[in-house]
Design brief:
By secondary structure, the protein is mostly beta strands. Helix content is about 15%, strand content about 40%. The protein has one helix and eight strands, in the order H-E-E-E-E-E-E-E-E. This is Lipoprotein.
């Protein structure tokens, strides 16, 4: 009888240990080798590119309507126009923002016809240094483009 008691005690302890290990979740095995990287090393391939910092940079160009402009991407998310068709044009509703490597620019009251009527246009596209070609849609439902060069 003493032998069965001696065997019962380790069996109960083993069963308790197995029951308790279900209460603890052990971390899973790593899914990748931590010593390797899957990011592209050639700077291409879409996805590993670093976002361009446009704040404080000045750009000039022409939209598809023929409006010529020079502006600066201000740190506060507004656009400061120094020239718009050889006139001062700067309103606080002209804004810009970044989403990853894409830029979005909204210009308010862009003249779209000879009578001076205008529309708000939101342009978007890949943010790059040097030059950008952006496409946009106006509140009037029309499509527009903007080609700008840094400097």
């Amino acid at each position: 009888m003493k032998t069965s008691r001696l065997l019962a005690l380790p069996a109960i302890a083993g069963a308790a240990l197995l029951t308790m290990t279900g209460c603890f979740q052990l971390p899973g095995a790593p899914t990748t080798n931590p010593g390797t990287s899957t990011a592209p090393t050639d700077g291409g391939g879409g996805g590993g590119e670093a976002a361009v910092d446009l704040a404080g940079t000045t750009w000039s160009g022409t939209d598809s309507i023929g409006n010529e402009m020079t502006f600066t991407f201000a740190d506060d998310g507004t656009i400061d126009f120094s020239d718009f068709n050889t006139q001062t044009y700067d309103v606080p509703t002209d804004t810009w923002s970044m989403d990853g490597s894409n830029v979005e620019i909204t210009i308010s009251g862009v003249p779209t016809s000879a009578d001076g009527s205008g529309t708000d246009i939101t342009y978007s596209g890949q943010a790059t240094t040097g030059s950008m070609s952006l496409s946009g849609t106006g509140e009037d439902g029309e499509s527009y483009s903007l080609s700008i060069t840094e400097g």
